[in-house]
Amino acid sequence: MSFFIFFIFFIFSITFHQYLHCFVAYRFGDVNLKFSGRLTLNPLKHIDFFGTIILPLILILATKNVFFGYAKPLIINHYYFKNQKKQTVLLALVGPLGNLAISFFLVLISYFFKEILILQILSTLAYANLLLFIINLIPLPPFDGSKILSALFSAKFLYFCRKFPYFGLYVILFLLWDNFFTLILKLFIKFL
Q: Going along 21-139, which residue ranges are E strands?
């Protein structure tokens, strides 16, 4: 599959992921995302120039098989929420669950095709969204899993997340660069 097709679908996937976060935050009372223009499926509002364009290009050019990127971070005001812990957990879960839904949808529609090329494209895109689901549930900041843990557990973890907001990103980039993380994810998915 061409890098261009994968890249376009990656932008769609992270846009949908971010839109779901925005939509749920808005439903929970945070109107700031609507006023800032982020409550939209327009990918231009969610693209982070470095994280969505430059970083994936650098990784593909440098490694030939590693792709990783991220969207523009959302600024969510949890003080609008009536039940902060519960709604923060739900808000953090909705983005990864959106990626899981995309993955399942692609698998379902693949049953209607017999052409090998289309099946390869659909399976690659489904696999990529499954990886987005798994990676976003990693309990290290800035991933959604860290927001779930910080809402449910100690103030020390919340302090860690605020003090080192990109810690998990550096860990993932190191592991991806070393291809170790890719191997672990493949083993994990085989057991699913």
A: none
Total tally of structural domains belonging to the chain: 1
In the structure encoding, which two tokens stand for residue 174, read together? Answer: 């190191």
Could you list the beta-strand ranges (E) of 36-77: none
30-89 pLDDT per residue, tens: 999 999 999 999 999 999 999 899 888 887 777 666 678 889 999 999 899 999 989 999
Domain, as residue range, for 139: 3-190
Three-class SS of residue 47? strand
Q: What is the number of other CB atoms lying within 10 angstroms of the CB of residue 35?
A: 9
Q: What is the pLDDT of residues 148-160, one digit of tens each?
A: 888 888 777 777 7
Long-range contacts, stretch 164-168, CB < 8 angstroms, 24+ apart? 165/141, 166/141, 166/142, 167/140, 167/141, 168/138, 168/140, 168/141, 168/142, 168/143
